[in-house]
């Protein structure tokens, strides 16, 4: 029985991180992606947004 190390190098194991995840800012902590639209195209843009965001039961 041989106790020699493997000849192929192994990939290093990922390091365990014990930081507090609540100390880090997540994408949910920002206002980005919450439906703000930068275009102000007037009434046509408002109608388009209304039709895009209308629930399916409001036909």
Automatic annotation (TrEMBL):
Task: Please indicate which superkingdom the organism of origin belongs to.
Answer: Bacteria
Region of interest: Disordered:
1-59
Q: Where is the composition biased (Basic and acidic residues)?
A: 29-39, 46-59
Q: Under which name does UniProt file this protein? A: Uncharacterized protein
Organism of provenance: Streptomyces lomondensis
> Which lineage ranks, top first, belong to the organism behind this chain?
Bacteria, Bacillati, Actinomycetota, Actinomycetes, Kitasatosporales
């Amino acid at each position: 029985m041989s106790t020699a190390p493997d000849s192929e190098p192994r990939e290093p194991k990922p390091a365990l991180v014990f930081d507090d995840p609540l100390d880090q800012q997540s994408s949910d902590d920002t206002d980005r992606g919450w439906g703000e639209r930068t275009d102000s195209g007037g009434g046509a843009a408002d109608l388009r947004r209304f039709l895009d965001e209308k629930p399916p039961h409001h036909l």
